[in-house]
Amino acid sequence: MLVRNLLSTRIPLLRCCSSSAPCLFKVGDTLKLTRTFTNEDVMEYGKVTFDSNPLHFDSDSARNAGFEDRLVHGMLVATLFPWIISSHFPGAVYVSQSLHFKLPVYIGEEIFGEIEADNIRENKNSYIAKLKTRCFKNGGLLVLDGEAITILSSLVVAQVHP
């Protein structure tokens, strides 16, 4: 399952980086990840979190509540943010995350997650980064936004190759 999910995920590199020099993360830089959540993802997430809300598991319940079909858990969608951070900054400490759910995400939809450096300050031997966090679907419809605070040991962006 994990291998299949990783193969269906694309991780674009930081837009400012060239292959010849290390890239330093700075205010305004954006890191992105794309993922399509599957039925299996939703089932496994429900088991791990004990979330048995029928909106995630029963199409009729979801439609009766006014949705097109079964929903991906909002918190599952939000896992894109720590994935982006940990992929590019191994050992980063995730301090906080606010979330605002804007639109439903349905199983099988391609979701683009991104973090954008909003503020970075040095703190002794590390950096505290305040990040704008957003997820989009269907060519730019905002489904989720918020803010994260992380502690980074370095501003060098680890290059992730899909």
Report what the structure shows.
This protein has one domain: Thiol Ester Dehydrase, Chain A, CATH 3.10.129.10. It is built from five helices and five strands. It has helices spanning 2-7, 39-49, 59-64, 74-77, 80-88; strands at residues 30-36, 93-101, 110-123, 126-137, 141-152. The longest helix is centred in the N-terminal third of the chain and has 11 residues, at 39-49. Mean pLDDT is 89; it is low at 1-16.
Feature tags:
single chain; 162 residues; alpha+beta; Thiol Ester Dehydrase, Chain A; 5-stranded antiparallel beta sheet; 5 helices; 5 strands; elongated; disordered N terminus; HotDog_dom_sf; (3R)-hydroxyacyl-[acyl-carrier-protein] dehydratase activity; UPF0336/Enoyl-CoA_hydratase
Instruction: Strand order, main sheet: write it out.
Output: 1-3-4-5-2
What is the molecular shape? Answer: elongated
Q: Do you know the CATH topology? A: Thiol Ester Dehydrase, Chain A
- Sequence stretches where pLDDT stays below 50 over 5 or more residues: 1-16
Sheet with the most strands, sense and barrel status: 5 strands, antiparallel
Domain MaoC-like: 33-126
Pfam family, one: MaoC_dehydratas
Organism: Ficus carica (Common fig)
GO molecular function, one term: (3R)-hydroxyacyl-[acyl-carrier-protein] dehydratase activity
Layout: helices, strands, pairs:
Elements: H1 2-7, E1 30-36, H2 39-49, H3 59-64, H4 74-77, H5 80-88, E2 93-101, E3 110-123, E4 126-137, E5 141-152
Antiparallel strand pairs: 1-3, 2-5, 3-4, 4-5
